[in-house]
Amino acid sequence: MLSRTGAPRIALIPPEVLDALNDGLVPTVNLNEFLALDLPRLARNVAGHIGLDPAHERITDTLAMLGAFKPVKRHEHVARALYDLTEPRPDRDDVAQALADHPSDIARCWATQWIMFSAMPLQDKLHSVGRFAADPHFGVREMAWMAVRDEIAGAVDDAVGLLLAWAQDANPNIRRFASEATRPRGVWCAQIEALKAEPWRALPLLEPLKADPSRYVQNSVANWLNDASKTQPEWVREVCERWSAESRGAETVYIVRRATRSLT
């Protein structure tokens, strides 16, 4: 079951796979499986797995009002309910660890959102989110950068300094996080106005990635520059021209071509 490719349509998901997904036993493998989840059932199962009461009023009330929200927002509300239930508990760290280690990618996404809810400073949030930035599941990796996006937007220069080592990490998922988390516009997230106006403030993060061997990283860097080209097209042209002169490999050629796709 773990090696499945995923059904091309929700109606084609085998019942046994759907049961395993809703029981929190296996991760999703595509968007159809994510959309097919019985979220209340999964939430109750995960709560039980990590030592919380699935029938607690806080969970029951949250699940009852999920229909009023868009799909992604529903998950934030579930994560918040689980987070709030652990607040008075002395074993809160153990519960958090169980959620972070859960076999369900959705449960691990909820764990990343716990970081978003906390009052930790950015440096500590980045330290906590690192394991999720390197997660084998694409969905958890996306939730990881979203969990610290607001703090990055509010402290761009500090974030760039903290992420410099990430941009040079041996793990391509970590390198990609440094780029994706700081994109001026991004996807499904608030824009970073400071980097729309002055994208050069994050250039130290992009420089080590201009010839990155990972296509995953290359796409993120190219999308970063394409974002910036909407507000600072001349700067993007200059960067791409310089990179093309400094690095003639196929990796840089690919990045530059995608980065300039919106420029005329």
Explain this structure.
The protein is an all-alpha fold and 264 residues long. The chain folds into two domains: 9-118, no CATH class; 156-264, ARM repeat domains (Serine Threonine Protein Phosphatase 5, Tetratricopeptide repeat, Alpha Horseshoe). It is 62% helix and 0% strand. It contains 17 helices and no strands. It has helices at residues 15-22, 31-36, 39-49, 57-64, 71-86, 92-100, 105-117, 122-133, 138-147, 149-154, 156-163, 172-180, 193-197, 203-206, 215-229, 233-246, 250-259. α8 runs antiparallel to α9, α15 packs antiparallel against α16 and α16 runs antiparallel to α17. The longest helix has 16 residues, at 71-86. It is globular and about 60 Å long. The N and C termini lie far apart (48 Å).
Describe the secondary-structure layout:
Blueprint (H helix, E strand, L loop, with lengths): L14 H8 L8 H6 L2 H11 L7 H8 L6 H16 L5 H9 L4 H13 L4 H12 L4 H10 L1 H6 L1 H8 L8 H9 L12 H5 L5 H4 L8 H15 L3 H14 L3 H10 L5
Helix pairs in contact: 4-5, 5-7, 7-8, 7-9, 8-9, 12-15, 15-16, 15-17, 16-17
Provide the helix percentage. Answer: 55-70%
Compute the separation of the termini in Å: 48 Å
Number of distinct helices = 17
Largest sheet: none
**Helix-strand makeup class:** mainly alpha
Arithmetic mean pLDDT: 96
Elements, N to C (H/E) = HHHHHHHHHHHHHHHHH
β-strand amount:
under 5%
The number of distinct β-strands equals 0
